[in-house]
Design goal:
Layout (H helix, E strand, L loop, with lengths): L4 H16 L6 H8 L3 H13 L3 E4 L5 E4 L8 H8 L24 H16 L3 H4 L3 H7 L5
Helix pairs in contact: 1-3, 1-4, 1-7, 2-3, 4-5
Amino acid sequence: MQIDKFSDYALRVMMVLAVRSPQRASAREIAGVFGISENHVAKIATALVREGYVVSQRGRAGGLSLAIPAAEISVGALLRRIKSQPPVAECFAESGSCLIMPACGLRSPLKEAQEAFFAVLDGYSLADITKQQQALARLLPEPS
């Protein structure tokens, strides 16, 4: 299994927010930290807000913050909900039209492998992956 860039950056955004909590971080600031476009971070933030993981506040003192405690955010659940990559195989797509799908024995093992991937990540919370908060904070530039 592979995590797409959108999911990878979403995890990074969440990690920044966990390390900076309870302070807010702007999309511009996060984009600068990782050298990605602010527009891309804004799209990620929109998805994280829509899924209830992040709160966005406008204005001078605005920015992004965690909507729920990091210890309550399962990495596996987060990835399942925001994953934007194409399905593992065509037969998992909503518009899947593989010719051999009715008799293919590959769908079940692929589904099982995908669930095993997420099951491992279900065992980790955002708090678990940001345990080294001081070390992470030193690696993240201070907000400007």
